[in-house]
Amino acid sequence: MAGGDRPEDEAYAERGVRAAPALGGEERRRLLDGAHHDPHALLGAHPVRGGVLFRTLRPYARSVTVTAAGLRARLRAEGDGLFSGVLPLREIPDYRLLVSYEDAELELHDPYRFLPALGPFDLHLIGEGRHEELWRALGARPMTHQGVSGTRFTVWAPNALGVRLTGDFSYWDGTALPMRSLGGSGVWELFLPGVGEGALYKFEITRPDGGRTLRADPMARRTECPPATASVVHASHHRWGDGAWMARRKGGRVHELPFSVYEVHLPSWRPGLTYRQLAQQLPAYVADLGFTHVELMPVAEHPFGGSWGYQVTGFYAPTARLGTPDDFKYLVDALHQAGIGVLVDWVPAHFPKDDWALAEFDGRPLYEPADPLRAAHPDWGTLEFDYGRTEVRNFLVANAVYWCEEFHIDGLRVDAVASMLYLDYSREPGQWTPNAHGGRENLDAVAFLQEMNATVYRRCPGVVTIAEESTAWDGVTRATHHTGPSGFGGLGFGLKWNMGWMHDSLGYLAHEPVHRKHHHHEMTFSMVYAYSENYVLPISHDEVVHGKRSLVSKMPGDWWQRRADHRAYLGFMWAHPGKQLLFMGQEFAQGAEWSEAHGPDWWLLDPSYSAEPDHRGVRDLVRDLNRVYAATPALWQRDTSPEGFSWVEGDAREDNVFAFLRFDAEGSPLLAISNFSPVVRHEYRIGVPDAVPMWREVLNTDDRRYGGSGVANSEPLKAEATGWHGRPASVLPVLPPLATIWLRPA
């Protein structure tokens, strides 16, 4: 008899309760070991001959009583936390369980009285690998089911013998909460009444070998803050205020619009700021500098901050280091309302081996290939995805859609595409297996990327996908249905990082001016292939870490010369065909490499610092570059068309001079001239179209406001009828030292 119970209460409680048939030994063992595929068949309420059988699994409980209208019946203890009994009822009532513990008594709904909360159509789409809104089917979803509030938990674990739910709501003991397998889908489900937003949870998976592993939810939309690893039940309550932005986005043609990107590592841009605090500072800063977009280094949850987010464990959850998913939405909303697009780095190439995350998730390779040689990523100690498995491909394709639809992200920059495309990437002979045709191409990865791009562009008009692809793969930005010379359809990306331009141009600038004539081709070669893809010109975080030095520190000479080269290079870059990307800190010529521990050296812009004008001048230049760029269609309207560019002087290697024309859709030109030598070149004749009688200087990186020497073309330049550079007319500008100038029709 329970302590404190009166004999008459006990007699009342057990009146009419018959002993339930005992569970078979094997069924009982599997249930208690967390290895049963259908616990709902054993637990809950079931009609039997002579009444209704109730059975529940409540470890540590002293008693369990079934309560309903006009009913209060105590179940019989079976041992091992099992309580059962047969009540003489005609039908299953709307009942609850009154569970008594040593120091508490809880009244709750029985999770095992509910039908599955996931329908057959969802399971069909999951099986087909075509569930484009997978996050609505899998994971933790607060909902009302059969009139009761709670959370539906679902997880894909096809190799598991059993799955149990555990969390702070069960004192992290999953014994009482086994989940059911839904047919042959590999999906396990449990609706848990009374559990809602903010609850912590994981899945306890019984592996094929009988061992157990405790796993975070691959589909979790919110996580604990690292180093804690639990998943968090989440429902969004953010109300978007960016309707005007989203409406404009649908009709945008990225290739024919201004597109200059400020790359940001959110945790270190202003260390210590949350998403909401960043929303008060970042949009204003970026808008003031005139960038059209920010690109955020990966924001998906990752356990090791030093990975900068490129080793993801929570693909559906913004990192909790800076706040909640709704807080991140607040930041995106604020950027949109400031007129700034948001790109995020997305990492479908690999994932870390943490034993609480995706690696051998249900006891066998699941998200990764079964072949260890195929699974191990040779460069980063991580695992590659199995792109040939429909459910894995679905997980990733839906994830791309998720960020664009749920968080209003305007573009995905896909990391490490080259490592996905080649079976022999960073592998020696004998360490990789050819494809079905004997080649080195990863055909499954190609199909995945094509499907991802096609799906994103179909579902999310105005969104752009960008490939970080460092090889000469044919057709990265070609439509997926257009077959190229290699026999493959295009990958379907909107843009591609131009890694060749980046390496060549930075290599040229690293030489002393006197030696640059021997490397002149490194600055012109990019135009040989400039229209083979739709390019972004990236000066990214990868170029200013790990001993590569910051952008200004790559330049030779003294401090003045390095800053002058830095400014001239930015002027050349902004005029070159392609979109622009600049990593934070480079906009004010930070001299030190970036470190995620402390971020940009903002103190360089402190007015009390003696060299502050030098750094402020570079930032002022970046602002003016973006301002003039946005106002000059010649610099972006025909960015992907050869008709939008023409060399004027591409072979002045002895002078370190480059000159070219850009044209807008109406044929209106901009003339860009770069002088990468430290001498002033007076009356340097440049051929121009005869249709423009006068030219005026609209930007000069040598302007004193930027920290330059002030050599300028202050008066309009009159075109002379002297043919030059194969053109009918010419002008005689002065070329400042280590500088780029832009001229437009006066």
The stretches of 5 or more residues where confidence is low (pLDDT under 50) are 1-13
Q: How would you write the strand order of the largest sheet?
A: 17-18-21-24-25-26-27-28
Main beta-sheet annotation: 8 strands, parallel, barrel
Radius of gyration: 32 Å
**Which percent bin holds the helix content?**
10-25%
Strand content: 15-25%
User: How many distinct helices?
Assistant: 15
Structural class comes to: alpha+beta
- Say how many strands there are: 36
Q: What is the averaged pLDDT score?
A: 95
What gross morphology would you assign?
A: elongated
Distance between the termini: 100 Å
Description:
The protein is an alpha+beta fold and 746 residues long. The strands form 9 sheets. Strands 17-18-21-24-25-26-27-28 form an 8-stranded parallel beta barrel. The chain has a 6-stranded antiparallel sheet with strand order 29-30-31-36-33-34. Strands 1-2-6-5 form a 4-stranded antiparallel sheet, with no helix packed on it. Strand 14 (200-206) and strand 15 (212-215) form a beta hairpin. Mean pLDDT is 95; it is low at 1-13.
